[in-house]
Design goal:
Radius of gyration: 23 Å
Order of helices and strands: EEEHEEHEHHHEHEHEEHEEEHEH
Strand order of the largest sheet: 6-7-8-3-9-10
Strand content: 25-35%
Shape: elongated
Largest sheet: 6 strands, mixed
Number of helices: 10
Helix content: 25-40%
Oligomer: single chain
């Protein structure tokens, strides 16, 4: 029977380090069987959130559950983590081992380890099995870390900056693997600075800014909702006329005005026509522009 609870759920989750509030009252859900991207600037709190979810850090306040298990319950959380494959941002590996030794060592820990998949990925990534990990390039270490996750069959993949160090071919291989695993019913939750990669594969996007959740939405909805309205008027028009719900930001230059909205674009068009605009152009925004508008001024 299919489990009904989300893959990940947080409720007013906060993590404080002295006077620094790294994560602030974070509440969101990651639904099963989809690819959810976790975006934010450096220091936004993405890695801290992931570590709280995995029991590596203890939240200051609030709660989180992963695969239906509360992270404050150590025994239950341990059970959940057996069904999770995780790739950390710094890709920690045992440098004194060879690639082959690392594969055998890791495979012995997990019942869901798939030797055939590991062998296929070694060939696909062109990993030198007899070479010590400390001798590998940064990109090769990243590929090995990804292999250790993708050679399993978990319920949930959590990936923190997974493509760091990869060349374009490696990035393409990674994206194809993520889509393939999602098609198999595996839930994917990943943080990334590479917005072009996110836009290609994500179903859902969460944007964190200074520890606060600013966006939690399906990617298709974001694309439909965010717009830049380029307006031209016969005479000067006040920005105050467009201070309506949904307007994120306004730029004006004489008779020209650009209005950035995340909803109510029809209201902006009606207002522009009412004020005798001579030109109204509606420009959809890509995820990069949406992200920049969301974190602007931070």
């Amino acid at each position: 029977m299919t489990e009904m609870f989300p893959a990940i759920e947080t409720r007013d989750l906060s993590k404080v380090y002295g006077s620094l509030e790294a994560v602030r009252n974070l509440s969101f859900c990651v639904e099963r069987n989809q690819i959810t991207a976790f975006l934010g600037q450096n220091g936004a709190g993405k890695s801290t959130t992931i570590k709280c979810l995995l029991g590596m850090l203890r939240p200051s306040t609030g709660d989180a559950s992963i695969l239906g298990k509360n992270t404050r319950d150590r025994a239950a959380s341990r059970v959940a983590r057996q069904k999770i494959a995780y790739v950390a941002e710094n890709k920690p590996l045992y440098g004194y081992m060879t690639v082959e030794q690392m594969l055998r060592f890791t495979g012995a820990f997990y019942q869901d380890w798939c030797p055939e998949m590991a062998t296929r990925l070694v060939a696909e990534f062109q990993l030198p099995v007899d070479k010590k990990i400390k001798r590998l390039s940064k990109g090769m270490r990243t590929k090995l870390a990804l292999l250790l996750a993708f050679a399993r069959k978990p319920e949930l993949l959590i990936l923190d900056e997974p493509t760091e160090g990869l060349d374009p071919v490696g990035v393409e291989q990674f994206l194809q693997m993520v889509v393939a695993r999602a098609a198999e019913g595996i839930t994917v939750f990943f943080s990334s600075h590479q917005i072009s990669e996110v836009e290609r594969i994500a179903d859902h996007v969460c944007i964190l800014d200074k520890g606060r959740l600013k966006v939690d939405s399906p990617l298709d909805y974001l694309r439909q909702s965010f717009r830049r309205m380029d307006l031209v008027f016969p005479d000067f028009c006040s920005e105050q006329d467009f201070r309506i719900p949904g307007v994120q930001r306004i730029e004006s230059n004489g008779r020209q005005m650009s209005v950035f909205v995340n909803k109510n674009s029809d209201m902006v068009i009606e207002r522009a026509k009412y004020l005798n605009a001579t030109s109204v152009e509606v420009v959809p925004l890509g995820l990069r522009e949406i992200f920049l508008e969301t974190v602007r001024g931070s």
